Amino acid sequence: MALSSTLPRFVGSTLWLCGALLAQGSAPTAPAVSTALDHAAAAEHSAANEGLAVLVYDHGELVFEEYQNGYRAETPQHLFSGTKSFVSVVALVAEAEGLLTLDERCADTLTEWQGDEKREQIKVHHLLDFTSGLENADGELHTARCRDKYARAVACECEFEPGKRFRYGSNHGMAFGELFQRKLDAARANDDTVPVDFVDYLEQRVLDPIDCEVGGWIRDGVSNPVMSYGAMLTAREWAKFGLLLLARGKHGEEQIVPDAHFDQLFEGTKANPRYGLNFWLHGPTFHRRNAAVPDDVVAAAGMYDQRLFLVPSRELVIVRFGRNFAPSSDYGDFEFLEALFGGKESDAAKGTERGKLPE
Questions:
Q1: Which of 55, 105, 294, 355 sits at 20 to 30 Å (Cα–Cα) from 315?
Q2: Which of 11, 59, 17, 6 is closest to 252 using CA atoms?
């Protein structure tokens, strides 16, 4: 079903209109050439490719909502790697509370890394932008036989000098999970009101204040919250998190996510200009292919095409769910966004591979 409304806008039009989410933090190179949104065309591309849900929030107002292929609105969906978007936001909140800093050496807490020349150089932000240099251990971390995923991640050897190479994988988030748990345990020794683990902290500090409900969270064999791919939320609940980010961490009069270092979430690195702190920054690439697609699009992306898109210049939040373990899908992020924003792909870009984010 499609839903339209004329409720008052609650995300201020003065927020983030200059495209602070660009990989290099610069203003958009060019405005989108089209202002009309074709919700139906985007939903059609989604539904034809194992889609389950498409929601569009425009200036904080839900203007389109469609559930597809038998999916029900109240069913939490496994976000897979879309979960990673919560990790970096928690890091910012924890930094403001004095629990950690993005620039601190992980080895100060993960003492197993002390004495290792490369791992001693890893800082917290390296775990969030995937430039830690740690070996990829997804072959184990993504299986049930790996009971303690945090311990396995911490045991990873460092193959490259931190900060030099981008390598996607779940080990970064799991290693951060162990670091964060040790931080919480140390704080709880002096204050038993400190949250007991990452999920408890996320809910108390970020999600509860915006009335966002987690539908479930996968844990490993020793009850560690799986940081890299464990979250389950409905489309509307994930959108609430997106609206918080669009408002630069502010909800009503409350600054839930600190403004300090907020832009770093959406700034790329030299190793990968198209990846920030657990967010993909492919807007400039898509914009070059079709000027109708704004160049400040960023996304949290999960396997089987779970997507949370933010478009600050247009004050849009878009959620797209795909069917888990679908046998086949020709979904593409570029094709989905091109359908939504209209316009035609440039002649120079025709014939290039489908625009789809890594997962």
A1: 355
A2: 11
Our CA dihedral for 310, 315, 317, 318, rounded to 10 degrees, sits at -90
Rounded CA gap, 81 and 301, in Å?
Answer: 6
Find the length of the chain: 359
CATH number at residue 116: 3.40.710.10
Distance CA 319, CA 65 (A): 9
| 223 and 308 co-located in one domain | no
Per-residue pLDDT of the chain (359 residues; tens, 9 = 90+): 444 333 333 333 333 333 333 333 333 344 444 468 999 999 999 999 999 999 999 999 999 999 999 999 999 999 999 999 999 999 999 999 999 999 999 999 999 999 999 999 999 999 999 999 999 999 999 999 999 999 999 999 999 999 999 999 999 999 999 999 999 999 999 999 999 999 999 999 999 999 999 999 999 999 999 999 999 999 999 999 999 999 999 999 999 999 989 999 999 999 999 999 999 999 999 999 999 999 999 999 999 999 999 999 999 999 999 999 987 799 999 999 999 999 766 554 455 545 666 66
Q: Which domain holds residue 22?
A: 1-75+234-254+282-359
Number of domains in the chain: 2
The verdict on residue 194 lying in a domain is: yes
Our CA dihedral for 292, 295, 299, 305, rounded to 10 degrees, sits at 40
What is the value of pTM for the model shown?
Answer: 0.87
Report d(CA 310, CA 328) in Å as an integer: 26
